[in-house]
Amino acid sequence: MGQKGDKILAERRILPFGDPILRKISKPVTGIDSKLLNLLGDLVDTLYATDGRAGLAAPQIGSLKRIVVMDCGKGLIELINPEMIEMQGEQIGPEACLSLPDYTGFVKRAQYVKIKAINRRGQSYFLEGEDFLARCIQHEMDHLEGVLFIDRIQGNALVHDQTRQKVNVRDVPGFMATGIGNPLSLKK
């Protein structure tokens, strides 16, 4: 925990790929209280303290709550109990994850999404996103279902960010430690 100006930062440890919590389904938030607001603050502090970030879901810091924070380049977005309302189109693009640093892979996602969520004041709202924002929303909402981007990788190939070598997703350290060959096949 650090300090920046008058604000105490509560940066939390991001769970690494292979941690079983990342494969669990998160529970809905039932009320907004100080504990939940502290968790939101910890998520925001952790997100902004991490290089190469666009979003962070509560399970990534060990809390099985349906909460996501994102900053895809246009400011902070907080999502509590996000629900997918609409998906359209298709895009394939690169994705990475803070729980699996150093690897990037291509994932097929919807081009456009519309979701419903709750803000920190308990008010419902709708959010629409296209392109990169749509990709971020889908990536982070997957975390709430115990799904990781490597479950959706095109061609089972990742690229190691430093060496630029292609790696089969099954060869990534920790993949077999999850005890789940193909998590999506188990969730149908």
From TrEMBL:
The active site is at E140. The keyword Glycoprotein does not apply. Binds 1 Fe(2+) ion. GO terms for biological process: translation. Its cofactor is Fe(2+). The keyword Protein biosynthesis applies. It holds the Pfam family Pep_deformylase. GO terms for molecular function: metal ion binding; peptide deformylase activity. Fe cation binds at C97, H139, H143. Keywords: Hydrolase, Iron, Metal-binding, Protein biosynthesis. It catalyses: N-terminal N-formyl-L-methionyl-[peptide] + H2O = N-terminal L-methionyl-[peptide] + formate. Its EC number is 3.5.1.88. Removes the formyl group from the N-terminal Met of newly synthesized proteins. Requires at least a dipeptide for an efficient rate of reaction. N-terminal L-methionine is a prerequisite for activity but the enzyme has broad specificity at other positions. Belongs to the polypeptide deformylase family. This is Peptide deformylase. The lineage of its organism: Bacteria, Bacillati, Bacillota, Negativicutes, Acetonemataceae.
